[in-house]
Design goal:
Length: about 350
């Protein structure tokens, strides 16, 4: 497994802070101005990348009205809607990609996309994207995986709904064209997702099974699941974002607003820093604290020949005297000389 992968100028891996992707999806709500505002919001929040989805209604489905092409009526967000109509509303016009990517570059963000068919890969190659993301529903489209992977750029594979066999097939499809720059994303494809369905303990299992770095594509509300994933080894977190949930957008109900995205960046970095190393013992930062452990001290002025007892020696802070557990050894012994109150008890005094 690679120790790190570079996307643009940013290194991703266990030795680097979590890479945060702000997924725009259809939250631009049909407005290029809103799309650019989302880019600005992501940059202000400290995200590392903005991600789009590159398709049209005609490249992702068919303009057909039958039960096969409708969501079930009880779907929480899009009940009863035709796939074609939903994708027509949610898609990002291809002519918007360049101005969105340009704004991202101006704001110091990486920008890339999820292609949904070979024409999208060709288009994104013309824009010089630094990476590709395979969406969960496309993981079984192995020709698409190979088409994106053969470009030689990092490929991020989302795994919602997928079995171990399906994930392995997609990973091997990418490797079959010589691409080892693979990050597999743990994902639950429900919108919004219940945290109880996240199964984050699968992250180290996936890492060991596929020999790749693992990230999280998270559709739960809030940032708790994403922060927890870092402690289990996630090197990347992708979350849908919007400037304002109340203003609408097809994915707005489970998307983060700017302050929440900033908290995600901050708290995942903190979680990564807190992981540290698998060692037990005092840290360098605790050196002063060690001095303020307890030890045996003389608690009043004593004269030579007096016996050690509870009226003149006890355990107090700091830790410059004999260990507290040695009291039973020194009790009853006599002082060799006069000793002032506040003196650390040592063997040469008794």
């Amino acid at each position: 497994m690679l120790d790190e992968i570079r996307i643009g100028g940013t290194l991703i891996g266990p030795g680097h802070e979590p890479f945060i992707i702000a997924e725009m999806s259809g939250n631009h709500d049909g407005s290029l101005d809103k799309a650019l505002a989302i880019v600005d919001m992501a940059a202000d929040a400290g995200a590392h990348a903005i991600k789009l989805q590159t398709y049209t209604a005609d490249t992702i489905t068919l303009d057909v009205d039958s039960p096969d092409f409708r969501l079930k009526d009880d779907h929480e967000l899009w009940g009863g809607r035709r796939l074609y109509d939903l994708y027509e509303e949610a898609h990002t016009p291809w002519e918007w990609h360049q101005p969105i990517f340009d704004r991202a570059a101006e704001r110091g963000l990486l920008a890339f996309s999820s292609p949904f068919d070979p024409t999208a890969v060709e288009f994104l190659e013309s824009l010089g994207v630094p990476a590709y993301k395979i969406a969960s529903s496309e993981i079984v489209d192995l020709p698409l995986v190979r088409r994106a992977a053969v470009c030689g750029k990092p490929i991020i594979i989302s795994t919602g709904m997928a079995s171990l066999g399906e994930i392995n097939a997609a990973v091997e499809a990418a490797r079959s064209v010589g691409n080892e720059q693979i990050i597999v994303l743990s994902c639950t494809t429900s919108y919004p997702a219940d945290p109880r369905d996240s199964n984050l303990r699968g992250i180290p299992v996936m890492r060991d099974a596929f020999g790749t770095m693992i990230g999280l594509s998270d559709h739960t509300l809030g940032i708790g699941a994403a922060v927890a994933s870092v402690a289990l080894g996630a090197v990347l977190v992708e979350k849908h974002v919007t400037t304002d949930r109340a203003s609408g957008g097809v994915d707005s109900a489970f998307s983060l607003e700017g302050p929440e995205l900033a908290a995600l960046v901050r708290e995942t970095r903190t979680a990564w820093q807190a992981m540290g190393e698998p060692v037990i013992g005092a840290r360098d930062a605790e050196a002063e604290g060690l001095r303020f452990r307890r030890s045996l001290y003389v608690t009043r002025d004593v004269k030579a020949g007096e016996p050690v007892g509870p009226d003149n020696v006890r355990s107090v802070r700091p830790a410059l005297g004999l260990a507290p557990d040695l009291y039973s050894v020194v009790e009853g012994r006599t002082f060799r000389r006069d000793v002032a109150r506040g003196t650390a008890l040592s063997w040469d005094l008794i």
